[in-house]
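Help needed: design a sequence for this.
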């Protein structure tokens, strides 16, 4: 007698015994800390360029940094988050030696 399930696609939950599903990559948030010396226009410009934000969102994050001292600017896999944090700090340093600090935190 033929198998009833023959020809049907297997469901994603059907797995061979002893095999586990690969986990999605862990995500990290990029946080940028307020630098009172850096002009807010410059900070907004850097955030817009690095995180590809529209002007209003970059300004909103800049205001959040001024109010709270820190803002979450994006969530990425670890390597990309590290690159974005470095890019923020390098851009601030190149634009006038500002010590704008960015860090990576696990979710």
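Sure. Designed sequence:
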């Amino acid at each position: 007698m033929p198998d009833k399930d023959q020809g049907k696609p297997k469901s994603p939950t059907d797995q061979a015994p002893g095999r586990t599903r690969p986990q999605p990559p862990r995500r990290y948030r990029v946080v940028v800390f307020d630098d009172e010396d850096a002009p807010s226009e410059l900070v907004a410009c850097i955030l817009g360029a690095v995180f590809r934000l529209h002007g209003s969102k970059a300004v909103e994050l800049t205001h959040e940094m001024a109010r709270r001292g820190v803002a979450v600017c994006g969530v990425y896999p670890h390597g990309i988050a590290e690159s974005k944090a470095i890019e923020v700090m390098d851009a601030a340093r190149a634009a006038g030696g500002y010590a704008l600090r960015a860090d990576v935190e696990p979710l």
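The chain has one domain: 27-106.
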